[in-house]
Amino acid sequence: MKRHGHGLVLGKFYPPHAGHHHLVRTARDRCERLTVLVCAASVESVSLADRVAWMREAHPDVRVVGAVDDTHMDLNDAAVWDAHMEVFTAAVPEQVDAVFTSESYGEELARRFGAESVLVDPGRTLFPVSGTAVRADPAGCWDYLEPPVRAALARRIVVLGAESTGTTTLARALAAHYRRRGGVWARTGYVAEYGREFSEAKLAALRGRWPGAQWEDVTFTTDDFPLIAETQNAREEAAARAGSPVLFCDTDSFATTVWHERYIGGRNPLVEQSADRVAHHLWLLTDHEGVAFEDDGLRDGEELRPWMTDRFRAELTRTGRRFIEITGDPGERLAAAVAAVDGLLDAGWHFTAPLPEHR
Residue 40 needs a FRET pair 20 to 30 A away by CA distance; which of 47, 70, 201, 274 works? Predict the structure, then answer.
């Protein structure tokens, strides 16, 4: 028999971390039913919807609700408490029997709900982490984060370029470079180009009907490209959830918009939508100059490489994506790419400050 009827866990979860999850799981085990209330201020840079979604994914067996709370915290001001309670009780109008917290305000919060206060690891000895620490150094707190939060915070780097310009070589070399850092970086991921896998399958299927078929006999339709873009997005998301604070992608759904131009002509709105759904942080455009064209059986566009380089550059510029062009020999290309990625990582993550708290 569980000790409490309806339990409540309340917090900003900005962002959620292992300490939050321990609190929720402890409360869930001690209650017949549990509500988790996520409160976000409008000034904060992680949306309420994202935080609610992350908590629901981590805790599918509890009720998670969200509320906007734009009142600062002052533990010594009754009027401030009243303003907070108005938000809390509107979101959770049911009787609450126990309030679970790891904070000093737990007693007063429980009293105002007419509930019992239950403190869970207030010294944070089991999980020495806080939202403040995560916001200050996500990479240093990486192991305390759940997969969807890691995916949201991972810095995603895209290597793109015309055919046979070394995109795959560079993306793999970058992933290997950062894995050698060790620690959480050892899990640095590399996402292969799904369009190539799709093309190989198309050629194999054609050869199943016509054994002598060659790459130039393969045809694409505009409907192929939304599938390629969405599959690329899905594989990237899976890699970001499992990986380190940086992820390297050999092309992306944005690049697929230009490949659609290359093979079909014009634009496909569904591909454009796929490209806009995923946040990337840096694009590395590999130049065709000085790179010999290698026909690996799935390439036929040597003469189109200057046009494709120009189209990638133009579209990256038009859409305001942050990019650099990668030139030179392989060593120079890797060095330039590492410098750009290091600069991105050194700039850190930028969370807006939460509302002030007076204790």
Answer: 274
